[in-house]
Recover the amino acids of this structure.
């Protein structure tokens, strides 16, 4: 409960790729909305640079020690996307900073809402955020030149806490239904365990209907206009949550419009659901990046730390800019608004509300 | 090359769940189209019963030995969906019969076309079919009550052969582009290897553009009407191929309309891309199941064994029934056509062509 803290420290960490440009727009609006709280000393902003690919490569660590230390001094974090080295890149094989931060700060729940009222879509995804294919994703095994292994991990505790959070959310928001998504017919041990535990916890919520589907058919059902509004709340292992939330966000305007909350018992981090878009940067299109994902993340951050009025205000401004007035359209290319133009527009709209 | 065989033996295996009802419609049309070949002794049909969940449970094997022996006597197989036991079911933990058959007959490539001309969709998915999360999907490890592991496998050979097949297809069909889909930023060892090998093989096809995307953002791009026609041919590890082909099929009318070819060096098996729909059976709706997936699989089978004229004929009849005349509509419920009615309609339409 953040209202009990003397002061809330908000870390702002731009990341790299398109991270800094989209994060700075969100930062600007956030500072505006909380300006009185800052004056009163109730809120403090802490800008954390240094989560760039260059620094991470230099430190040969997913998150350099000094950056991690700074992050741990914050109560909540607004974080821009970060570039992940991968096979064939000129960088060493360090882990994704997103993935590392989720583990280091034990942010076990990745909550991703997708809402498109006129399409009957009002989904909330509870993605398990530290296990599955991600726990040991950087620790695979090359047995020899021909044979490689990766590992998937499911723990009882890890599954219980994400399931409980999802069911509590469903109960408190009268959602009536929770869908558990796995591939337990093939990935039998870990997904089977995940499914079983979620079902067990579901039994403690008799007013909520639980169903379960395989991930493959679920990606089809989201598209089916007659079926998709049956879905309300989803619980998913890490990788399936990653995959399906990008698909789901597309109905709302794309991953550039979708924010997420990464929640743990001690920290909370808010970010875009997408990556750092190195291709946009390489093609000089980063200034056309869409800041809406980070602005939606900011709405979630405000609500999380108890500034619900401010959260509602920003959400209203975003809806106006994105769906109603549409004075600027973001296309990611030079026939659309720049990130800064769109940020100004959201800022002005927020100020007028 | 099937034209060199004295006789082609076609196995027909109904499976269970909705399998038998949809397979029998496909079987009927196939026998009609090849009736002269049967008379000439060039083609023989072999009906293989016994791939039911009851028999598999009794044998405690994914495929009972006698069934496997029969299957191995065939040159090509038309197979209905089969029910896969999973956590919580009253059955032992036997493997999916699909998965087992792909391994036993070394059907390394799962080729899944999705075509919707008026949406600019003309995709062919080359799903690696024996490795990834599937190789050891039934061999996970429960370390103790709290901790479970599953394993993902990638081999060089396994990746090379699917990549080569996809690039050869792209070359022979002037597709111009191949997209490699992985999650190599997280599942670094196996997906990293898969990506690297596909890219290497791509270099042998300089006239073909290769790009690569992560599976999460790819599920969004398929929906994006402005981007999706950029995609032509996909190469994917097993699990991502499983997931994304269900999504892709939705644009074409759902998984009930999509067939697939499971190809190896010695055998080939043709099936629906979906499962046995136990829920439909439980609700008494199996007679309303859509046979189109099995009929599309039949088109692929005919083409594969060299009966291109017959394949084209059936494809034409299906397009007429599904998209043009639409005398019957399949809904999966009692407000739609039954499987048998739709099968009759396709049969009559085929006979008239
Ligand atoms: C960038 C990547 C490591 C990350 C993930 O896979 O979790 C992203 O796709 C996300 O969903 O937040
Ligand atoms: C039924 C299931 C085991 C199967 C798979 O996962 O491969 C199916 O979804 C498919 O795509 O053929």
């Amino acid at each position: 409960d953040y209202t009990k803290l003397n002061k809330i420290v908000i870390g702002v960490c731009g990341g790299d790729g398109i991270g800094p440009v989209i994060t700075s727009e969100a930062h600007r609006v956030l500072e505006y909305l909380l300006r009185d709280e800052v004056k009163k000393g109730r809120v403090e902003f802490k800008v954390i640079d240094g989560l760039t690919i260059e620094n991470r490569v230099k430190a040969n660590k997913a998150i350099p020690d000094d950056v991690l230390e700074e992050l741990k001094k914050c109560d909540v974090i607004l974080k821009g996307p970060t570039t992940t080295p991968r096979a064939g890149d000129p960088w060493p094989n360090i882990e994704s900073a997103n993935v590392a931060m989720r583990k280091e700060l034990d942010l076990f729940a990745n909550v991703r809402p997708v809402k498109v009222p006129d399409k009957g879509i009002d989904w909330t995804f509870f993605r398990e955020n530290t296990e599955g294919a991600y726990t040991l994703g950087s620790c695979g095994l090359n047995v020899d030149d021909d044979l490689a292994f990766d590992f998937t991990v499911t723990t009882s505790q890890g599954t219980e806490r994400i399931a409980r959070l999802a069911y509590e959310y469903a109960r408190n928001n009268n959602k009536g239904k929770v869908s558990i998504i796995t591939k337990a017919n093939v990935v039998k041990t870990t997904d089977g365990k995940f499914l079983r535990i979620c079902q067990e916890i579901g039994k403690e919520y008799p007013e909520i209907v639980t169903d379960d589907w395989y991930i493959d058919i679920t990606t089809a059902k989201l598209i089916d206009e007659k079926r998709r509004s049956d879905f309300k709340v989803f619980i998913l292992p890490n990788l399936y949550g990653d995959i399906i939330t990008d698909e789901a966000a597309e109905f709302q305007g794309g991953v550039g419009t979708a924010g997420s909350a990464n929640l743990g018992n001690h920290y909370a981090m808010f970010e875009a659901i997408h990556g750092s878009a190195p291709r946009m940067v390489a093609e000089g299109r980063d200034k056309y990046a869409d800041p809406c994902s980070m602005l939606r993340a900011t709405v979630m951050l405000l609500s999380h730390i108890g500034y619900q009025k401010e959260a509602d205000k920003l959400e209203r401004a975003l809806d106006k800019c994105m769906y109603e007035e549409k004075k600027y359209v973001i296309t990611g290319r030079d026939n659309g608004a720049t990130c800064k133009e769109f940020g100004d527009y959201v800022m002005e709209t927020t100020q007028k509300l």
